[in-house]
Amino acid sequence: MHESQSIPQPRKAEKKRVKIKAGVQGPSGSGKTWGALAMAFNLWPRAKVCVIDSENESASLYADHWDFDTIPLTPPFTSARYQQCIEMVVHLGYDVAIIDSLSHQWDGEGGILRRKEALDQRPGANSWANWAQFTPEHQAFIESIKQAPIHIIATMRAKQDYVLEQGDKGKTKPVKVGMAPIVREGTDYEFSIVFDVQMDHKAVVSKNRTGLFEGEVLDLASQSVADRLRAWLESGAEVKGPSTETWKAPTPGRADEPQKTRRENPSSTGAAARQTNAKPPAREWERKGDILTCQPWKTESMERNGQKFVAVKLNEKINGSPMAFCFITQLFGALSHCADQRTVFRIDETEYTYITDVLEIAGKQYEGGVPRSSKPAMAAPTNPAPTTEEVETFWQDGETVHPPANPPENAETAKETKPEPDPLTITDDDLPGEFWTGERKTDAAL
Questions:
Q1: How far apart are CA 111 and CA 210, in angstroms?
Q2: Lowest-pLDDT range, 58-62, 202-206, 331-335?
Q3: Packing angle between helix 32-43 and helix 223-234, nearest 10 degrees?
Q4: 157 & 50 share domain
Q5: CATH assignment of the domain containing 79
């Protein structure tokens, strides 16, 4: 018999207080977002609420009714980006997260289904076997929602669902069987309760572990709905959950091992904006001469005045700035792997902080920009400007970052035309002023 870990002893079942994980699904225009917001504020009138908004900031249309913050999530709608948003909302002390909507993680630009379909188009691809690459990712995403130590309400788009039935003459024909959420099959079963909202803005319960509202037609904006749901939530023994300051979302394929997050700032409109300076979990940081051991938040390929480079947002500051820069083409590929990983750089900080070599990433030794185990024979390294192909293939998992256009010539024009920054990227505000004028340290000086 194989040895195993000890098995817990039986104990009396006891209802415990939980953080609600609720779903609100319905077709476009049915009032999902309104219902989710109304339910959140009826349940917890003084709560700090943040909406993770992948619906082109449509939730902000209701900012005159409720005081809440938003994270305007833009493509690609990968599971990891959703998880980063959930972690950020948890760490910044919000009480409730509304994910509006969950459908883009499945069938939006960069969503699992879109990437799976692209993979299936490759010659010799096995459509069934390709799911092995995406199922762990999706499961880790669902576990992030279920395990998050805050209340979460998620909206899901729905569409008309059909089944094929055999007619009187033996021919099959599609038959309408109601609405189906645009998420991976079975996702709606992961929630404690799911409300189906119709075009008349009325809702019924379709998935339910609460025992409430069975057979009833509901108005999600009704205070009585919130009161009954709150009574169910507050019944049972109180349980101390994980710390919101250290909680991390599960990593794909390793549900018991947390995934590190990146510090990002949500777009803020209410009192919770003051929370954006909350301290993130401790990360590795050690300086020994020109050797820096750190755990970067973000790396991004950029271009200014025709010069391509990589900007790295460090997890601590050097000389008052968290930014480091690399102009050495051979290191670009290695830098694409260092975000959220323990990384050892060789740096030069005579002017700004420049990365002159990558020595280690996640325990793997690097030399000349490649892992030592796979390092090919090569001549002495040179530092030519990166090619367009190298920059465009900088990111993994099909995510491509297109460098922003060169900035306007004068500061006044720049102030008028500067776009609203994506909260999940490095912005021009992170760059020193000399990058605007082209006065930078050259590769030769390194």
A1: 31
A2: 331-335
A3: 60
A4: yes
A5: 3.40.50
What confidence category does residue 369 fall into, taking pLDDT thresholds of 50, 70 and 90? confident
Residue 336 is predicted with a pLDDT of 85
Domain that holds residue 272: 21-276
What DSSP state is assigned to residue 235?
S
Give the whole-angstrom CA distance, residue 359 versus residue 4: 39
206/417 Cα distance (integer angstroms): 48
Nearest CA to 206 among 197, 215, 216, 196? Answer: 196
Calpha distance 322→22 (Å, rounded) = 38
pLDDT in tens, 5-43: 688 889 888 888 889 999 999 998 899 999 999 999 999
228 burial class (0-12, 13-18, 19+ CB within 10 angstroms)? Answer: middle
Angle between helix axes 79-91 and 135-147 (nearest 10 degrees) is: 20
**Spatial distance between the Cα atoms of 427 and 290, rounded to a whole number of angstroms:** 26
Q: What does the alpha-carbon distance between residue 61 and residue 160 come to, in Å, rounded to a whole number?
A: 27
Q: How far is CA 310 from CA 54, 326, 397, in A?
A: 27, 5, 18
Residues forming beta bridges with residue 25, ordered by sequence position? 156, 196
pLDDT score, position 72:
94
End position of a domain, from candidates 257, 276, 295: 276
Residue 96 lies in a domain: yes
% of the chain beyond a pLDDT of 70: 71
Q: What is the DSSP string of 167-198?
A: -TTS-EEEEEEEEEESSSTTGGGGSSEEEEE-
Q: What is the pLDDT, as a whole number, of residue 213? A: 95
Q: Which residue has the higher pLDDT, 323 or 430?
A: 323
169 with 92, same domain: the answer is yes
For 93, phi and psi rounded to 5 degrees?
Answer: 85, 20
Q: Do residues 102 and 140 share a domain? A: yes
Residue linked to tokens 């601590």: 316
Q: Is the model's pLDDT at 78 over the cut of 60? A: yes
**Cα atoms in the 13 Å half-sphere on the side-chain side of 130:** 16
Q: Give how many domains the chain has, as a whole number.
A: 2
Pairing label, strands 21-26, 193-197: parallel
In a domain, 341, yes or no: yes
Output b/e per residue, 427-444; b: 16+ Cβ within 10 A. Answer: ebebbeeebbeeebeebe
What's the predicted TM-score (pTM) here?
Answer: 0.55
